[in-house]
Structure formats: structure tokens, C-alpha cells
Design brief:
single chain, 54% strand, 4-stranded antiparallel sheet, globular, mainly beta, 7-stranded mixed sheet
């Protein structure tokens, strides 16, 4: 069983920054890939970034490349999403999710945290 708890959302002005945190509780965290997803009102949920918990490898959606950075602190079992140069279109509920390294589907989800970017 994997438990994920997000924090760090809020209201920020355009071109500002926020850092989201995802606390990961799992028996073997290194066996999981952790991803950040977002869902804006009326839109499909989309993946924003992902990181393998063992050997470092990252993925970014084209829409956030160069602005967002995903990282992990193994000792704290925490995955971060640093969001810079935020735009109003980044407004969404952001979710942390996890999946076994060998699996395509994300099985475990956090409760979500709201990010609102004002223009």
C-alpha cells in the first residue's frame, strides 16, 4: 500500500513560483515512479512531470519544460515539483500519483492541492 499526501498549493500571481511537495509512504519507495498530474475545470487530467524513485530519470510535459522541475529527497521520502514562471493556464488541482516501476498505470493517488495563478 502506498500513501501520498500533497502540500504547497495556493494562490500566486503570474510569473511567480510555487513548490509542491508529495510525501510518499511505502514499504519500498525506490520501487515506484512518482508523477505529478493536474486537472483544470472542464479539462482532462494530464501528466505534468514524473520521476523514478530509484535511478534518477525524469519526464516533463512539453507545456512545462523549462519552467517546472521535479526532484526527490530520498531520506525524507518526498517528491517536489518546483514551478517557476507560472501562467494563468497552469491553474488546476495538482495531484501526486505513484505506480510500480514496471507498470504503465498509476495506482495510487493523493487528495490533490489547488494551484491558482492570477493574471
Amino acid at each position: 500500500q502506498v500513501r501520498l499526501v500533497e502540500s504547497g498549493g495556493g494562490l500566486v500571481q503570474a510569473v511567480g513560483s510555487l513548490r509542491l511537495s508529495c510525501s510518499v509512504s511505502a514499504r519500498s519507495p525506490s520501487n515506484y515512479v512518482v508523477g505529478w498530474f493536474r486537472q483544470a475545470p472542464g479539462q482532462e487530467r494530464e501528466i505534468v512531470a514524473a520521476i523514478a524513485y530509484g535511478p534518477s530519470s525524469t519526464y516533463y510535459a512539453d507545456s512545462v519544460k523549462g519552467r517546472f522541475s521535479i526532484s526527490r529527497h530520498n531520506a525524507l521520502n518526498t517528491v517536489y515539483l518546483q514551478m517557476n514562471s507560472l501562467k494563468p493556464e497552469d491553474t488546476a488541482v495538482y495531484y501526486c500519483a505513484a505506480k510500480p516501476r514496471t507498470q504503465k498505470q498509476y495506482d495510487y493517488w493523493g487528495q490533490g492541492t489547488q494551484v491558482t495563478v492570477s493574471s
